[in-house]
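Reminder to self: C-alpha cells first, then the designed residues, so the page reads top to bottom the way the pipeline ran.
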C-alpha cells in the first residue's frame, strides 16, 4: 500500500511575523526577519484523497507550514488537531494501523493505553479549518545566539476561536465543506493564527509524543500567521511539495522523539510516489 498521509488538502499562502520573544529564543531566520512568506496546507487524515470532510475518519485534521526562507531554502512545521499521538514509535504506529485494518483494534487498544486515549479523545467536526487548534505533538528545541536550548511544542491558535459543529449540523454539510468554507473565508478577509509554544521544564519527557506536558507549563507567543490567498495551480503544487517534520535550519533543532525520523522518511517516500504518478485534475 502507498504510505500516503493526509492525502486530501489545499494550500494557502500568506505571511508569518515573529514576536520579540521568538528573536530572543532562536537564531532561525523566520524568527528574526521582519516577516517571512509561508504556504500553509490544511488537510484531512487518512491516505484517501476523496474522503468526505464529514467523515469522522478525517480527524485529526492536519496543518503543515512551509516558511520560504529564500534562495530555495525552507523549513516546515507539521501539526494536527489532537494534542498528542497514539503511539511512541513508528513501529508501534504500524501495528496500530495493521490492527485497524485486520479487525483486531480492540485487542490493540486494550494493551496500549495511549492509543486508546487517542481514539477516545474528543474530535468534534470543525466549523472551519480556521477554527481549529493544532499541535506539533513532537518536541523541538529553539537555540539562541549563545547556544542555549529551550525545548518546546508548537501550538497554532486560531484568531477566529475554536468552533465546532454538532452532529445535526454536519449532516447538512457537503463532502468538501471545509475546503469550500476556507476558500470563501479567505476571499472575504485574511485568516489568522498565533504560533505559540508550550515550554518544557527540566525533567519533562521530550521524546514521547503520547505524553502530555503539565498544563501549567508556560505558553509563549512566537508570532502570527496571516493567510490571504489560495496558492495558484494548487493540485500541481500539492503533487510536488514534500513537507519535512525535521527543521533542518539554524536556530531550531529536533528532539530525540523517534516519530520525527519515521515521519520524515514516510513523507519523502509518499512525495516521490506523488511526483512519479500521473495526476488527474
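Designed residues (281 positions):
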Amino acid at each position: 500500500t502507498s504510505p500516503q498521509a493526509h492525502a486530501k488538502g489545499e494550500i494557502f499562502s500568506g505571511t508569518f511575523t515573529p514576536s520579540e520573544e521568538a528573536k530572543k529564543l532562536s537564531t532561525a531566520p523566520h524568527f528574526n526577519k521582519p516577516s517571512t512568506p509561508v504556504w500553509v496546507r490544511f488537510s484531512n487524515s487518512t491516505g484517501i484523497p476523496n474522503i468526505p470532510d464529514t467523515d469522522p475518519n478525517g480527524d485529526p485534521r492536519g496543518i503543515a507550514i512551509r516558511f520560504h526562507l529564500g534562495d530555495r531554502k525552507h523549513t516546515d512545521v507539521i501539526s494536527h488537531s489532537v494534542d498528542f499521538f497514539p503511539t511512541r514509535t513508528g513501529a508501534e504506529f504500524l501495528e496500530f494501523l495493521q490492527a485497524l485494518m485486520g479487525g483486531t483494534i480492540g485487542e490493540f487498544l486494550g494493551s496500549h493505553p495511549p492509543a486508546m486515549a487517542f481514539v477516545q479523545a474528543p474530535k468534534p467536526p470543525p466549523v472551519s479549518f480556521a477554527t481549529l487548534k493544532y499541535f506539533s505533538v513532537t518536541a523541538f528545541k529553539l537555540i539562541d545566539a549563545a547556544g542555549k536550548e529551550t525545548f518546546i511544542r508548537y501550538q497554532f491558535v486560531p484568531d477566529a476561536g475554536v468552533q465546532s459543529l454538532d452532529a445535526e449540523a454536519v449532516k447538512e454539510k457537503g463532502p468538501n465543506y471545509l475546503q469550500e468554507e476556507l476558500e470563501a473565508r479567505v476571499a472575504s478577509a485574511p485568516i489568522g493564527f498565533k504560533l505559540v509554544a508550550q515550554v518544557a521544564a527540566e525533567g519533562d519527557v521530550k521524546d514521547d509524543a503520547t505524553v502530555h506536558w503539565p498544563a501549567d507549563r508556560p505558553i509563549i507567543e512566537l508570532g502570527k500567521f496571516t493567510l490571504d490567498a489560495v496558492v495558484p495551480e494548487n493540485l500541481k503544487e500539492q503533487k510536488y511539495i514534500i513537507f519535512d517534520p525535521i527543521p533542518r535550519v539554524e536556530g531550531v533543532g529536533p528532539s530525540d522523539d523517534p516519530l520525527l525520523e519515521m515521519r520524515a522518511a514516510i513523507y519523502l517516500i509518499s512525495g516521490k510516489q506523488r511526483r512519479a504518478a500521473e495526476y488527474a485534475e
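The CA atoms of residues 38 and 269 lie 24 Å apart.
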